[in-house]
Automatic annotation (TrEMBL):
SUPFAM superfamilies: Winged helix' DNA-binding domain. It comes from the Bacteria. This is Winged helix-turn-helix transcriptional regulator.
């Protein structure tokens, strides 16, 4: 869909609406694509955190970190971690550290390739400079309204 608002009209548009609409479109697309390969976005987050660790990653650390991504709370995040383990993608040792299994590494690779495709799709026609400006402006909106955001 091509938008035909003039710059004069756009300057009056509400950031709340456009940031919400962009977030919804991006998240809906990611979740649908991940569902297509048999996983959820929170399960992907778990896989990515565990795969990115140099050594087995403490479950509590994964859960705490990912709570910043999920509004549903700690129980929901713990449930997603349990599902990743139940699917055989990760194991938890006696000390509560998570490691990917061979199946988990293979699945993580497939999911990571999909995420790269989705990144390219989202960024089509958008320069790195435009993207950086957009992120910085959104950060200022958050700061200016007393909000908090964090992403790693």
């Amino acid at each position: 869909m091509e938008y035909t608002h003039s710059d004069t009209d756009l300057i009056k548009q509400p950031i709340g609406y456009w940031s919400w609409a962009a977030s919804k479109a991006v998240v809906d697309r990611i979740r649908a694509a991940l569902a297509g390969i048999g996983t959820t976005q929170p399960q992907w987050w778990v896989l990515a955190q565990v795969a990115g660790a140099d050594t087995a990653k403490p479950r509590d650390e994964v859960s705490r970190l990912l709570l910043n991504y999920l509004d549903a709370g700690r129980e929901a995040m713990e449930s997603e971690i349990d599902t990743v383990i139940a699917r055989g993608w990760a194991v938890e040792d006696a000390a509560g550290r998570l490691s990917l299994t061979a199946d988990g590494r293979e699945f993580h690779g497939r999911a990571a390739a999909l995420q790269e495709e989705l990144w390219a799709e989202r960024h089509a026609g958008i320069s790195d400079e435009e993207y950086l400006t957009t992120i910085k402006v959104l950060q200022r909106f958050i700061r200016n309204t007393g909000g908090q955001a964090w992403h790693h």
